[in-house]
Design goal:
Blueprint: H1 6-28, H2 40-57, E1 71-84, E2 87-101, E3 106-121, E4 124-128, E5 142-165, E6 172-194, E7 203-207, E8 210-223, E9 225-227, E10 231-240, E11 246-248, E12 251-254, E13 257-260, H3 261-264, E14 269-271, E15 275-284, E16 289-292, H4 293-306, E17 310-321
Antiparallel strand pairs: 1-2, 1-17, 2-3, 3-5, 4-5, 5-6, 6-7, 6-8, 7-12, 8-10, 9-10, 10-15, 11-14, 12-13, 15-16, 16-17
Length: about 325
């Protein structure tokens, strides 16, 4: 027969065990100990940055080797398709400007541009963490299923550039310019469902919308290579950096919470990278129409190097340099 003095002791031990076991089980299902650096937000940031760089690859160049005086129109049209795993952005680019040569060597260019891209995609899996937030009531970081990528990107601005061209049959052109630009992420959202951890099955939404203004100095070099009497090949390279780095904020909803970067006082992520572009325009001297075949080839290669996770990058840029 069990002593009555041992019953309270056994009850106390049982209570302690019942309290410890759920906590131990939760620890066994704790968040990922070593989450990868290239998580969901890594890809979500690179998608609009890829769109931004599609513009940099299609910037117009001032017309040189013209008779001094007069203003010459510049009209550009293009399209791009940028993808990062299960999300993609597809849209068009437009440019309108003028070029003015005040000598055989010097030319000025003023232009405006606009790009509009729609976000779409499929369902995919990646790591979800507490990005640009604090105090999220979920077991993070953890694997999650993301779905319904949506929203739009708008990239607009004004550009000013001055070019100096050498004389000769294969003249070189040096360019220095400045962009005043705005990148807007409108309704840039995803849905998520946690696949592991203590909160497996929890669902919610992520909103990465926001806008940033940049002042972007850039420089470039180009050489003109005649291809017979009518055609001209124009290999070129440019580099620049948007200043200052933009804020990449987050709003996250889930079971019983709705948090944002501002409401939690967390530190924003950053968006807007320095860029390096390569191109090779093929220009018809009679019509003034140029197709940048080099940019079409180089855009996906450079995106793969500068924005890991971008697995689809297509660009077509056509510009008319009126006489």
């Amino acid at each position: 027969m069990v002593s009555r003095s041992r019953i309270p002791l056994a009850a106390a031990v049982l209570a302690v065990v019942l309290a410890i076991v759920p906590g131990f089980a939760r620890e066994c299902r704790a968040a990922m100990a070593n989450p990868p650096h290239e998580d969901f937000f890594f890809l979500a940031e690179h998608l609009p940055e890829g769109v931004e760089e599609a513009r940099y690859f299609s910037l117009p160049w001032p017309e040189t080797n013209l008779e001094p005086g007069g203003w010459h129109p510049i009209v550009g049209l293009g399209g791009a398709d940028v993808g990062a795993d299960f999300a993609r952005a597809r849209g068009g680019l437009a440019t309108l400007g003028v070029s003015h040569a005040w000598s055989a060597a010097w030319a000025l260019e003023i232009f405006g541009y606009y790009g509009s891209f729609e976000v779409s995609g499929e369902t995919g899996e990646d790591v979800l963490r507490e990005f640009a937030l604090s105090g999220v009531a979920l077991d993070l970081p953890e694997r999650a299923r993301f779905s319904d990528p949506r929203g739009s990107f708008r990239h607009s601005g004004l550009g000013f550039a001055v070019a100096r061209t050498t004389a000769g049959r294969r003249p070189w052109t040096l360019l220095g310019g400045l962009l005043l630009e705005r990148l807007e992420l409108d309704g840039y959202r995803f849905d998520y469902e946690l696949l592991g951890g203590a909160d497996a099955g929890a669902t919610g939404g992520l909103d990465l919308s926001g806008s940033n203004d940049f002042v972007t100095p850039y420089a470039g070099v180009s050489v003109a290579l005649p291809l017979g009497e009518r055609w001209l090949a124009l290999p070129r390279a440019q580099l620049g950096v948007p200043l200052p780095s933009g804020d990449f904020d987050n709003r996250m909803t889930g079971p019983g919470f709705d948090l944002s970067t501002d409401s939690t006082g967390a530190r924003s992520g950053k968006i807007g990278d320095g860029f390096f572009t390569l191109g090779a325009g093929l220009r018809d001297r009679v019509s003034g129409i140029e197709v940048d075949l080099g940019a079409t080839l180089a855009f996906p290669l450079i995106q793969g190097l500068t924005h890991p996770g971008i697995d689809r990058a297509w660009l077509l840029s056509v510009t008319w340099y009126g006489r």
